[in-house]
Specification:
heterodimer, A: about 450 residues, alpha+beta, Lipocalin, 8-stranded antiparallel barrel, about 20% helix, elongated, B: about 300 residues, alpha/beta, 2 domains, 4-stranded mixed β-sheet, two-stranded antiparallel sheet, 10 helices, 6 strands, globular
Amino acid sequence: MRKFWIHTPRNIMGAILMVSLAITSCKKEDDHLFDQSADERISQKLEEYQQVLTGAPDGWKAVYTPAAGGTYNFYFRFNAENRVFMYSDFDTATANNEKESSYRLKALQQPSLIFDTYSYIHLLSDPRGSVNGGQNGQGLQADFEFAINSVAGDSMVLTGRLNGTKLTLYKASSRDYAAWQNGDWGDALSFLNVSKILEYFKRLVVGGTQYEVDVDPVSKTIIFRWLSGSNLQQVTTGFSFDAGMLVLDEPVVNGAQTITGFSDISWDPNTMTIHLKVNNTPGTIAGNPGPLKTDTDAPERWWQESAIAGYWQSLRGFHVNGEDDAYGFLQMPGAPDMVFISQYGNSGGIVYDLLGFFGETVGFGAGYSPPTFTADGRVIFSILGVLGTVPDGADPAFSNTALTLADENGFYLVQKSEKIYDMVSAADSKIWITWGRP
Amino acid sequence: MKRYSSFISLFVFAGVLLASCKKEKINPEDAENIHDLGGDTWVRGPIDDWIRDSLTSIYNIDVKYKWNQFEDLADITAILVPPKEEPIIPLLSSLKKAWIDTYSAEGGEEFFKKIVPKNMYMVGSPAFNPNGSVKQGVAEGGRKIIVLDINRVTVKGMPGYTAGDSVFFKRMLWTIQHEFAHILHMNIMYPQDFKNINPSLITSNWTDYSNAEAVRDGFVSNYAMNVSDDDFVETITYMLIEGKAGFEQLIASIPEGVTDRGTTRDQAVLRLRTKESIIVNYYKQVWNIDFYKLQTRVRAAVTALIN
């Protein structure tokens, strides 16, 4: 029985195989399923796609999301000489200047569109983190080689070959193209100048109503804070750009005033002010020395919460007058982490806080007497002494950082999310540091 | 046994059947219509023309700069992006002056054509290694040089060039000279004596040492400690690009004292001098090139291109 089971299927398989071979191998040429060879058909398909791409007189537009997130607008115009002309809302330069580069259509496993010399779309793929805010070696996990899935009506659907991102090209109108050429997108992007405002606190004033805005240009989010009676309201929303506009993902509703976005945006570098309109009402965003409403409990809350993870960590040190890590903490020898630990130790009966710098080969810091929490919501530190051996080359980054924290006017604390606080100098809101915990 | 033989006869039979029914012949002229077999073309532009006229037709060097997914990138698996178009001609033209022209002048054009890798592939970004270091060039078996990170390069004469940018061009030239020197010894090996200079200091953990520490141990750079081949080509590259005066300055900079790995000042100097003399002899005996003349030419070209 066993033998029977093993052999019979094979014999049947063999018979089927022989018959099918006999049939297919004698097929005549004119019996082809297609009347052209595979290569001819691929060539024809590429030719057809080329016609579609170059046949849009006003080019193509796309909203593109890399695998790492974010929303980016692109505009493409293809010509028959393998050249593509591009705009993007990546930054003000890419929004204002049309860039020429190379493309080609090629049969990979599927007909594919390849942007084969560097242009705006490659800014998102660039593995150099400094280009796009991604990780070194990773970038934003975007694509620049796309398989063409389908063409239907006024759109072309493509899929990135490396990261699988979706790109849908829609035929642009002459108005779409003009919006880039006229600088409407550049105007919208001028909103990003908000990062040039030196003060930590940025005040949006529209029709007499005041909002505090906190903009993160990398993740494209804005925190809005406003007063409802004496209560501080806070919402966080994402945003994207459109021709001449900034559009909020979620409208901000403050009583009778609803903000869905900003239009007519411009930047005045002399007064460091953004001018804009909300529902046709003119408004401005400018720096402000203090918060809209001080969270008076925040300093003590922050200080107590040091115990949760055991420390607060700062990744970039003090931001001063528009400069990240102004004191050069990241250049310290031994590449230490910067932490704040409340009630770190006891020295002669004084339970002190620590601003510590810990690395594999280094460990040092400054001790502070128990802080003073003022009624108006500030925390004030005073230096008790230096702990450990400060290595050569760690100064002046170390002493500048330690002394700034001991400023006699103290600091406001702004809670941005559960595990992140910003600490802002009460004397000069152009100085701040971000503390986070895992 | 019987089972196997019946299967063999089946395949033989089928094979005969297939062959006998074949009617079409392959026409070689069809090959150019097959994509990826000579069928990958684009409309030529000024960069393509410049490469053809300045490099391909004279030296038979094919420089590719458009992204090709199927390009053989040796051991590189990192995420890369294609090069910007703007720096390509200025960069290649500067490299020609400080590399091709200098070797051709001292070694003869025939020597250069014979040795030069026939393919160059340009990449916009560096290749980030998992340990955080970056790779800026790879020579593949003497046939091809992969030039990375060209988007950082601004060459003298380009808009926006500042004197500080000269480091990027110098680094690029360094990569090319380094890889070309590898190709020289891949053709004819340098003497074993060179490997005997400091065998115990060769380490794959070269990133643990700074350039200054490497010099105190008798190397021109930390990367020179990687393997003897890199020691050989890094020393050549340093001497060519920094010139005789630069090399003398490097030697003079070595302080007194003993390094962590037990090298005295005199030992470090002796090592560098021995490397220099083996290299000079190697160039003379193997390639009939006066190294010091070549050095003078390269240094003069570098000076003209960066100041």
